[in-house]
Amino acid sequence: MACSQQYEYRWADGVQIKKPIEVSAPKYVEYLMDWIEAQLDDESIFPQKLGSPFPPNFKEVVKTIFKRLFRVYAHIYHSHFQKIVSLKEEAHLNTCFKHFILFTCEFGLIDKKELAPLQELIESIIAPY
């Protein structure tokens, strides 16, 4: 999956696919959503029982989830934004992305270098805050 000629994202989950592989954007999203679902369902990562502790690596798991979700936004903006505009749906995408970015910035969930593909857009979002 790519978001421009400069950025290409390959998939690896570290379990079934250990070495990153080239996949299409739809396949990347499919792998990602399945992987996120598995993380959320894993009670050793996201405890369901009240009072159960979160694991020491909890923030790192969440950071990986958000980093990979950002890649989907980057792909959408670089490869499909004109289609979204033609459907007059850009306000919805922009609102979702704004909430996503403000949340990730507030809690430091994505390293700055990972945000490079959409840096200008991100700066326009966070500048007023």
**Over the alpha carbons, how many angstroms does the gyration radius reach?**
16 Å
Mean pLDDT: 94
What about the largest sheet?
none
Number of helical regions: 4
Q: Which overall shape is indicated by the principal axes computed on the Cα atoms?
A: globular
Textual characterization of the structure:
The protein has helices spanning 25-41, 58-86, 90-107, 119-126. It is an all-alpha fold. The relative contact order is 0.12. The mean pLDDT is 94.
How would you summarize the topology of this molecule?
Layout lengths: L24 H17 L16 H29 L3 H18 L11 H8 L3
Structure described in brief:
This protein has 129 residues and is mostly helical. The chain has four helices and no strands. The longest helix is centred in the middle third of the chain and has 29 residues, at 58-86.
Write a concise keyword list for the protein shown above.
129 residues, mainly alpha, Butyryl-CoA Dehydrogenase, subunit A, domain 3, 56% helix, globular
